[in-house]
């Protein structure tokens, strides 16, 4: 059931990401020089269709499906009773899970190369190399006349990225900041713009800057991470961090599989009030803040863009909410039978799992909510500790589910 919730969220986030990023580049950068970014005509077509919908009023039937005040008006009131649960088997539960993953050297290298070092990119006086990022102004001409979309200023281009047509990026290798380069190039025969397909053109390029991602040195490692004194030590710290994340994810997966198996084997009857409470809780305390923090707009706008009403969205959350309430009911019963209590230490340990302090946790949850979460985690930990776990590859795990 949680998978359905995540699937919906993935679609939601994808649409949000596209909206936030614009899902395309400007025509001035792409039409003339970039074969890889040849979707400009398609984008123009989409804009025309959107304008047509606005003129005919079609768009107004979808926009404004949900008003932000509807989200603001939602109250998250936990009912006195969540329902009932008669426990089934919760010791020796059979679980089939993916093999634990061990972080590789390639994982560590990729993380550092793609997520860390690019933040320290800096200008260099050297000649540009493949992998460097150049900032350029360029003008493209055909038969001596500038063609539409073939010119731009202040464009950042990673050499070797393949964004521009063959010969453009390679032609800038070996040149320095301040140099002017003239490139005699030919557009591909199958180029999407028929006016340019197979055409011989000239690009006059001015290199404004050359930037390079640095290599990991002892000094840079210490700058990135004060706990590292050498590059080697930093690499090991990254490896430990990535492995910790993998182990945490694995345990969370085992926890979900474990309590889901117990729920399935138990007689659980969540109350309707509890399910509605959990739906409201997911909307107010998960989806709304997540969208605002990640994309700068809330759930109301997201649903309106998808032409989904608030009630329709609540219905889509119902199955996931029912599962979550069922898990809470089962966890509560296991906690009673096994005398699993929530005290200061348990609360602090739970916060530490998420690299937070207890006070940080209490800014996001009420004491009652946090106690319930910790009790659920203690119950899941108990099930996992006493489970019969079979590790298999991903295909076998999918078949088992």
Keywords:
50% helix, 2 domains, disordered N terminus, five-stranded antiparallel sheet, 16% strand, Trigger factor, domain 2, Chitinase A, domain 3, two-stranded antiparallel ribbon, alpha+beta, 401 residues, 14 helices, 9 strands
Question: What's the short story on this structure?
Answer:
With 401 residues, this protein is α+β, with helices and mostly antiparallel strands.
Description:
With 401 residues, this protein is of the alpha+beta class. It has two domains: 66-104 and 230-400, Trigger factor, domain 2 (Orthogonal Bundle), CATH 1.10.3120.10; 119-212, Chitinase A, domain 3 (Roll), CATH 3.10.50. Helices cover 50% and strands 16% of the residues. It contains 14 helices and nine strands. It has helices at residues 2-21, 27-30, 40-56, 68-72, 105-116, 218-224, 231-265, 272-295, 299-305, 310-337, 344-353, 358-364, 367-385, 394-400, and strands at 83-86, 94-98, 122-123, 133-142, 145-158, 180-186, 200-212, 267-270, 388-392. The strands form three sheets. Strands 3, 4, 5, 6 and 7 form a five-stranded antiparallel beta sheet that branches. A two-stranded antiparallel ribbon has the order 1-8. A two-stranded parallel sheet has the order 2-9. Helix 6 (218-224) crosses helix 7, helix 7 (231-265) packs across helix 13 and helix 8 (272-295) crosses helix 10. The termini are close together. 23% of the residues are buried. Mean pLDDT is 86; it is low at 1-32 and 35-63.
């Amino acid at each position: 059931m949680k998978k359905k919730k995540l699937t919906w969220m993935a679609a939601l986030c994808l649409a949000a990401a596209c909206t936030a990023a614009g899902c395309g580049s400007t025509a001035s950068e792409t039409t003339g020089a970039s074969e890889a970014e040849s979707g400009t005509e398609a984008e123009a077509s989409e804009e025309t269709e959107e304008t047509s919908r606005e003129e005919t009023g079609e768009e107004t039937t979808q926009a404004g499906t949900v008003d932000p005040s509807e989200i603001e008006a939602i109250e998250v009131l936990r009912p006195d009773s969540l329902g009932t649960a008669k426990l089934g088997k919760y010791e020796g539960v059979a679980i089939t899970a993916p093999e634990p993953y061990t972080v590789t050297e390639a994982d560590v290298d990729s993380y550092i190369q793609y997520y860390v070092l690019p933040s320290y990119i800096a200008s260099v006086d050297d000649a540009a190399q493949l992998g460097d990022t150049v900032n350029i102004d360029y003008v493209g001409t055909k038969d001596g006349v500038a063609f539409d979309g073939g010119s731009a200023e202040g464009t950042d281009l990673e050499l070797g990225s393949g964004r521009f047509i063959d010969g453009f990026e390679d032609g800038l290798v070996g040149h320095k900041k301040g140099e002017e380069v003239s490139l005699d190039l030919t557009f591909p025969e199958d180029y999407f713009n028929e006016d340019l397909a197979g055409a011989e053109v000239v690009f006059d390029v001015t290199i404004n800057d050359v930037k390079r991602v640095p290599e990991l040195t002892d000094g840079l490692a210490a700058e990135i991470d004060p706990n590292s004194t050498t590059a080697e030590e930093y690499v090991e710290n990254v490896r430990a961090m990535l492995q910790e994340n993998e182990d945490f994810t694995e345990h969370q997966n085992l926890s979900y599989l474990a309590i889901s198996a117990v729920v399935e084997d138990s007689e659980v009857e969540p109350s309707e009030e509890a399910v509605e409470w959990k739906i409201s809780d997911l909307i107010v305390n998960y989806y709304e803040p997540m969208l605002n923090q990640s994309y700068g707009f809330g759930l109301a706008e997201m649903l309106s863009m998808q032409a989904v009403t608030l009630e329709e969205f609540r219905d889509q959350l119902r199955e996931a909410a029912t599962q979550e309430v069922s898990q809470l009911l089962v966890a509560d019963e296991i906690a009673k039978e096994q005398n699993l209590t929530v005290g200061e230490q348990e609360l602090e340990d739970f916060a530490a799992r998420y690299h937070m302090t207890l006070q940080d946790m209490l800014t996001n949850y009420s004491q009652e909510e946090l106690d319930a979460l910790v009790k659920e985690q203690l119950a899941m930990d108990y099930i996992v500790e006493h489970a019969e776990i079979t590790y298999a590859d991903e295909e076998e795990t999918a078949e088992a589910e």
